[in-house]
């Protein structure tokens, strides 16, 4: 059985207004998944980058509750910049200014309801997308006004050219890594494992074993990130990695480990 196919599963969207009022009054923090709708190969749904952070935050909320920290999950954000996959059907592209204005309005709405703190988790790896999200978090924090933080690892902050010590970041621990001969970043082993673990109903499982590994290295990844026909040429089937190696049990483990690092980052930022 899948863990909530609806993107509203266990979010504020399934709460009543009275329950929201009470949570804000108790000092609950808000968790927000920020994803995109983009192609993820012939075997994964376009909403992969929405489903993964949503599942991660659901687990993080449980861990936070065990630490005495109440949280609610805002309905996910799913519009953004898809530079690498823009040439594929199903990849939506939204203007940066639109993204920022939406973030600001969401923050203002949460503040209106009495919430004081929000932690944002991106499920999409595009650097341009995440830099815009970070700008939105900073601008929205003042516009809300609300204390807002983007949950990122130190290495990802550096890739975005953001100082890891920036006050609008809540730093997560880097995930344990194992040496890999080839890059696996898009609809490959990792993402397929996580979606298969949490949303098996939307994985085209009959296709997964037929997908050969791309066996690409860093130089190939950099070319793929150029997008357009570069990406189509490098990944005509829309994935970069080894989806056939996916394992749903490992997917559960990846998400749980990430949820633990997020809970630790939230607790540290709150001084708890």
Descriptive notes:
The protein is of the alpha/beta class and 272 residues long. The protein has a domain at 12-176 and 251-269: Rossmann fold (3-Layer(aba) Sandwich), CATH 3.40.50.10310. Helix content is 42%, strand content 10%. It has a five-stranded parallel β-sheet with strand order 2-1-3-4-5, sandwiched between helices. Helix 2 links the parallel strand 1 (29-34) and strand 2. Helix 6 (189-198) packs across helix 9. The protein starts with 16 loop residues before the first helix and ends with a helix.
Strands, total number: 5
| CA gyration radius, whole angstroms | 18 Å
Distance between the termini: 35 Å
Secondary-structure element sequence? Answer: HEHEHEHEHEHHHH
* Average of the residue pLDDT scores: 95
Largest sheet: 5 strands, parallel
Percent strand: 5-15%
Q: Which key terms come to mind for this protein?
A:
single chain; 272 residues; alpha/beta; Rossmann fold; five-stranded parallel β-sheet; 9 helices; 5 strands; globular
Helix and strand topology:
Elements: H1 17-25, E1 29-34, H2 48-66, E2 71-77, H3 96-112, E3 117-122, H4 127-143, E4 147-152, H5 154-159, E5 169-171, H6 189-198, H7 218-224, H8 228-234, H9 248-269
In short:
This protein has 272 residues and is an alpha/beta fold.
């Amino acid at each position: 059985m899948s863990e909530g196919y609806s993107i509203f599963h266990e979010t504020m969207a399934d709460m009543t207004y009275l329950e929201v009022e009470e949570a804000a009054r108790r000092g609950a923090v808000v968790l927000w998944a920020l994803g995109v709708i983009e192609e993820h190969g012939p075997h994964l749904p376009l909403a992969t980058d929405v489903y993964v952070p949503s599942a991660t935050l659901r687990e993080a909320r449980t861990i936070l509750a065990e630490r005495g920290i109440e949280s609610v999950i805002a309905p996910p954000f799913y519009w953004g910049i898809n530079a690498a996959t823009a040439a594929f059907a199903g990849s939506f592209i939204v203007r940066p200014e639109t993204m920022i204005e939406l973030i600001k309005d969401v923050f203002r709405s949460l503040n209106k309801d009495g919430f004081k703190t929000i932690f944002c988790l991106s499920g999409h790896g595009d650097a341009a997308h995440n830099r815009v999200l970070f700008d939105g978090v900073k601008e929205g924090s003042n516009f809300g006004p609300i204390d807002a933080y983007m949950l990122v690892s130190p290495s990802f902050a550096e890739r975005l050219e953001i100082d890891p010590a920036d006050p609008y970041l809540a730093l997560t621990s880097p995930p344990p890594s194992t040496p890999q001969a080839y890059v696996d970043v898009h609809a490959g082993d990792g993402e397929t494992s996580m979606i298969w673990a949490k949303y098996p109903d939307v994985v085209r499982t009959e296709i997964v074993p037929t997908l050969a590994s791309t066996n690409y290295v860093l130089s190939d990844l950099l070319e793929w990130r150029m997008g357009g026909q570069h990406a189509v040429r490098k990944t005509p089937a829309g994935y970069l990695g080894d989806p056939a190696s996916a394992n749903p049990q490992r997917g559960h483990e990846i998400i749980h480990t990430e949820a633990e690092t997020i809970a630790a980052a939230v607790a540290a930022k709150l001084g708890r």
